[in-house]
Write a structure and sequence with these properties.
Blueprint (H helix, E strand, L loop, with lengths): L7 E5 L1 H6 L1 H11 L1 H6 L5 H12 L5 E7 L2 E10 L26 E9 L8 H10 L6 E6 L4 H9 L3 E6 L8 E7 L3
Parallel strand pairs: 4-5
Antiparallel strand pairs: 1-2, 2-3, 3-4, 5-7, 6-7
Bound molecules: coenzyme A.
Length: 184
């Protein structure tokens, strides 16, 4: 049994993201400080654009975790639309049926992060479980850098399985494309 205080979790749609944008960006800037400083793709302006694009998708949801009024971390994602290009950078051969996105089947988790001083207390797990709690989709997907040991270990311990390597853009790294059955 964890002796850490439980998170207070709030759930938001696109309007909620807009209302909390400053806190979300500040958390991102802290967790990804090195990347923000060195890689234009991680600039706050570019990240803000990606957030707004995610928020415009059907099935978008943001969960935020608080201790008191302090934001500990957040997770967000959206439903893959019919014919989604999510799997178009797949590097491995898999059963094509696994890649058939019909607009109802799969929720994608785009982001999950916990501020460093709050890690290893089960808070990422709480955000993950809250994000997936009342989804209608039958499975979830995410992309993880295979060298991201904490995240990879977390997903494997939470029941995720690797489908194959995915390179979303020609110049991006190859990520592990992961799936979790939601049993809906
Ligand atoms: C990945 C991340 C979200 C995990 O957050 P967290 O709150 O520490 O995770 P939890 O406490 O819920 O840990 C769950 C499990 O993950 C694994 N794990 C987490 N950190 C780990 C580490 N440093 N090394 C090995 N395993 C780790 C463990 O299996 C852990 O369970 P345990 O503590 O009972 O052993 C956090 O490290 C983070 O924000 N990293 C930076 C952002 C990031 O990489 N996000 C994922 C992008 S795909």
């Amino acid at each position: 049994m964890s002796h850490h205080p439980d998170l207070r979790i709030t759930t938001h749609d696109a309007a909620g993201l807009a209302a909390h944008m400053d806190d979300v960006l500040a958390t991102f800037a802290e967790v990804y400080a090195h990347e923000v400083a060195t890689d234009p793709f991680f600039s706050l302006a570019r990240y803000g654009e990606r957030l707004n694009a995610y928020a415009s998708r059907a099935g978008f949801s943001l969960v935020m975790g608080y201790l008191g009024n302090e934001l500990v971390g957040y997770a967000l994602g959206f439903r893959l639309p019919a014919g989604s290009g999510w799997w178009s950078g797949l590097q491995d051969h898999v059963d094509p049926e696994m890649l058939n996105e019909d607009g109802t089947r799969t929720v994608a988790i785009c982001e999950i992060m916990v501020r460093e001083q709050f890690r290893r207390r089960g808070y990422a797990r709480r955000l993950h479980d809250a994000f997936l709690h009342d989804r209608t989709e039958s499975r979830a997907t995410l992309l993880v850098d295979p060298t991201n040991t904490p995240a990879k270990a977390a997903y494997l311990s939470w029941g995720w399985q690797r489908l194959g390597g995915v390179r979303p853009f020609a110049d991006s790294p190859t990520y592990d494309g992961m799936l979790l059955t939601l049993g809906r």
